[in-house]
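Contributing new complexes? Match this layout with PRP.
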Amino acid sequence: MHLNHPDITKVLVTADQISVRVAELAAELDEYYADKDPLLVGVLKGAVPFMADLSRAMELSTTQDWMAVSSYGSGTISSGVVRILKDLDTDLDGRHVLIVEDIIDSGLTLSWLTSNLATRGAASVEVVTLLRKPDAAKVKIDVRWVGFDIPSDFVVGYGLDYNERYRSLDGVGVLAPSVYS
Ligand code: PRP
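Output block (do not edit by hand):
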């Protein structure tokens, strides 16, 4: 679905900008993980398009696994208490893990996830995120690779949803307040 959509009031990142940035990130990851046989861990569901594009832009052979987590608490506010809905199938012992996220908002999900994965014997745990909202951060996380820093608007597209819709938009944009108010 194209970002030029009536429910989108402002374009933040176009499909072309994403593809250029994904290629840059993939090249950096290829170099960093050259002899590390990385395991890419995607966080469902938002990271699906980013994982698909990033892993295919990488020249390295990677393995991939997925987790689904849900934060307790109501509405769109992340509470920091996380429940695992679907765990990994892969043993992390000695593995170099790269968490692939679509967005870091408060940072609470990722803060929990990085420490959880680190306790499973991984050799390293790093993070690549396509988007980050620096103004919304509640905890400081060490994120090695960031695609784009964006303002704290309600954004959808390229995996990000509102009520499960708009994930298939080819870029990232601000959702019209009339849609959710
Ligand atoms: C989003 C996103 C991150 C998390 C970031 O997932 O994919 O996992 O929120 O928020 P935080 O930094 O404030 O913790 P969401 O819970 O919306 O699930 P989804 O990917 O299935 O849409």
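Reviewers usually confirm one structural detail per submission. For this one: The beta strands are 8-13, 39-44, 63-71, 82-86, 96-104, 124-132, 145-149, 155-156, 172-175.
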